[in-house]
Write a structure and sequence with these properties.
With 322 residues, the chain is an alpha+beta fold. It is built from 12 helices and 11 strands. The chain folds into 2 domains: 195 residues, Jelly Rolls, CATH 2.60.120; 103 residues, Arc Repressor Mutant, subunit A (Orthogonal Bundle), CATH 1.10.10.60.
């Protein structure tokens, strides 16, 4: 297993390239910088697990970006949308799969095609864990009663998609996602850490998927999803609670109660966490000044931004760039 940092690559890799990369204790990093697109892709491969984080910022409304490929390897995927809007078409699923902030799924689609279309300009960021089917069966076959159905489908080579679009992943799960990149462990201990965190994250996903539907009516879920889209459409000029309720067709009580149940936060608590995460991505992946980032994400003054950022992430935004 390689211990030295792999060489940074200048452009996003193709799937054939990624397949051929050996295991490494440090992430591979790929970058793209074009007038209308900037992006960063990092990949960590160890002992049958591949952990990746793909970030892309589209700077033009006119730009249409999509990626299409055949999934020819026997991999179980755990997908998490950290930011953005992506429409995914899968060969074995009739309806489109919509990746919005907080969405997550478990998928097995060997031999099937998929097409991902990036909707709207702005930031799109996804986190994925790929588990080789052989390793998945070693870990879960025979002693994972709640997931026996998935195990049987993997054994038979039957594709599946497990999702609950109305239930977003929790802050606890978000912290686990970040831990893959922040651990100081190396070598075999890092491999063990990755596998342990993958299983913890998978079980937390499964626990969410087994929850009863938070709202009695699918009609209300659709209106809550619409409310979320309206809320995040213009970060600099968000609607008031009264305006948002009217625009999505719910009264304020249902809007507040439903938002808390589905997104595990208040309406404007959710808005604040999203814009701070968007700001964090801009700090990490762009050369914009902190003042530019503050105004772009809807803060009236850079000092308000820096105070809220430190409260959320435990450090000032300038420290993140050091």
């Amino acid at each position: 297993m390689r211990e030295e940092p792999p060489e940074k690559q200048p452009d996003f890799p193709g799937f054939d390239h990624l397949r051929g990369l050996p295991d490494s204790a440090t992430p591979y990093n790929f970058f793209v910088s074009l007038p209308e697109v900037t992006g960063h892709y990092r990949l960590l491969k160890m002992n049958g697990l591949a952990v990746s984080d793909g970030y892309m910022e589209l700077k033009s409304q006119r730009l249409s970006v999509h990626m299409e490929h055949i999934n020819d390897l026997p991999l179980i995927e755990m997908n998490f949308s950290l930011e953005g809007n992506i429409r995914q078409k899968l060969g074995f699923v009739q309806d489109d799969v919509m990746y919005t902030k907080g969405y997550h799924n478990i998928m097995y689609n060997q031999g099937e095609w998929e097409r991902n279309q990036f909707l709207h300009c702005g930031i799109h960021n996804t986190f994925t864990i790929n588990i080789h089917a052989e390793r998945f069966l070693q870990l879960f076959y025979g002693h994972s009663f709640p997931m026996d159905e998935l195990v049987e489908k993997v054994v038979k080579g039957t594709p599946f998609l497990v999702q609950r679009p109305g239930i977003t992943f929790t802050p606890q799960m978000g912290a686990i996602i970040q831990s893959f990149w922040n651990t100081p462990l190396t070598g075999g201990l890092k491999s063990l850490f990755m596998e342990t965190k993958m299983m913890e994250l998978l079980l937390l996903q499964w626990e969410l998927f087994l929850q009863p539907t938070p709202c009695k009516a699918q009609y209300d879920l659709e209106k809550l999803e619409l409310a979320k889209e309206i809320l995040l459409k213009d970060m600099q000029h968000p609607p008031s609670l009264t305006q948002l309720a009217r625009l999505c067709g719910l009264n304020e009580f249902k809007l507040k109660k439903g938002f808390k149940e589905v997104y595990h936060n208040t309406v404007f608590g959710y808005f604040a966490s999203v814009r701070l995460e968007q700001a964090r991505q801009l700090v990490l992946h762009t050369g914009k000044t902190l003042s530019e980032i503050a105004y772009e994400t809807g803060f009236s003054h850079p000092q308000h931004f820096q105070r809220a950022f430190k409260q959320q992430f435990g450090m000032a935004p300038g420290q993140l760039r050091k």
